[in-house]
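Usage

Read records sequentially. Each one opens with the input sequence:
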Amino acid sequence: MNEQITHQEQITTESANGRFKNSFSSWFWSSMIAATVVHFGFFASLEFAEPPDLGLNVEPTAMIDLPPDVALPPPPEAIARPATPVVAPTDIETDITIAPTTFTSLSVDDLPEPPGEVEVDISAAPGFVPHTVKPAYTNAAEVMRALEREYPPLLRDAGIGGTVQVWFFIDENGAVQNQVVQVSSGHQALDDAALRVAPVFRFTPALNRDKAVAVWISLPITFRTN
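and closes with the structure output:
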């Protein structure tokens, strides 16, 4: 009985497989047609943008006149090669001697006179004079009174001051013999006042080793309001 049921189930299964195999072709083609229809419908629903106009507006090329041809100068002439040296036909004696020179043969009678000392007026213009000890002024109180006395009243009342750099020429005794403005204060009245104050200064003599010498030195003279 069980064998009959098993045989019957086998027949039924073979019949279902056969029916599926027979219907495969129709299912396959139906699926392909449906997929094609769906794709065409999808692409038909899309809106394709129109491509932009890529035309270029090119301006016409401007024509220019070419410059005239320039005539090039001819190349310089080639430098001539130096001539080949030629040996002179004159015979030169090979027995040439130079007389020996000794200190005893030299005469000192014909020597020129040594140059004399040239005197230079150092007081004429500021310049450097060799010295080992600088001069120093010794009358500060008197100089302050001279500054107050010579200060131009108009500039002092207006609160205008300034500094004048002055060259001093000091002799061997420390006295001021000459004064020159080196750097101006910017006000002529202050410069003139500084030159009036300069002779009031008293200095110790400048020394070159142990000898007093006249020298030029530069000092500032300042006018200021209290």
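Summary fields computed downstream for this record:
- Residues 2-45 form the longest helix (44 residues).
- The chain has four helices and five strands.
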